[in-house]
Amino acid sequence: MGRPSVPPERLLKAQLLIALYSVRSDRMFCEMLDYNILFRWFLGMNMEEASLDATTFTKNRDRLLEHRIAEKFFEAVVGYARQESLLSDEHFTVDSSLIEAWASMKSFRSPKIYRTQMTTRATLE
Predict the structure, then answer these.
(1) 95 phi and psi, to 5 degrees?
(2) Domain locations in the chain?
(3) In sequence order, what are the residues at sequence separation of 6 or more whose Cβ sits closer than 8 angstroms to the Cβ of residue 15?
(4) How far apart are CA 13 and CA 44, in angstroms?
(5) How many beta carbons lie within 10 A of that of residue 43, not counting itself?
């Protein structure tokens, strides 16, 4: 019989949650559904409903991307924002209050050191 599939609208909503709350993996997201009432409410799940299976979630998400459903959804959202005059070509603003860096401290280079390395490299070339 197999595991139940995940409805496409639930997958899209889940991907929004994953991006907005910086959830690091599908497995972690599916585990968070066991206790995060906000996530359950946003996905239209009641408290008794079983959480999503991580493997099924990943496979269904891959199908969603394969059929360009997420791209069409994004285009519709942008189209609606353009229709309501919510977009501007004058400037670009990002609310970075929920954006977290996934870079390690080992890969961090200060701007001063980076400029010095680039200047040295340009001189050698």
Answers:
(1) -85, 105
(2) 1-88+100-125
(3) 61, 70
(4) 10
(5) 20
**pLDDT tens-place string over residues 8-40:** 888 889 988 998 898 989 899 999 999 999 999
Q: How many residues does the chain have?
A: 125
Residue 84 tokens read as 């309501």
Question: CA-CA distance, 93 to 75, in Å (whole number)?
Answer: 19
- For residues 63 and 44, give the distance between their C-alpha atoms in angstroms, rounded to a whole number: 21
> pTM of the entire structure?
0.61
DSSP 22: T
**How far apart, in whole angstroms, are the C-alpha atoms of residue 100 and residue 42?**
22
Cα 101 from Cα 79, distance rounded (Å): 29
- Asked if residues 8 and 58 have their Cβ atoms less than 8 Å apart, the reply is no
**Distant-in-sequence, close-in-space partners of 83: CB < 8 Å, separation ≥ 6:** none
Could you report the per-residue pLDDT of 49-95, keeping only the tens digit for each? 988 888 888 888 888 888 888 888 889 989 999 999 888 877 776 66
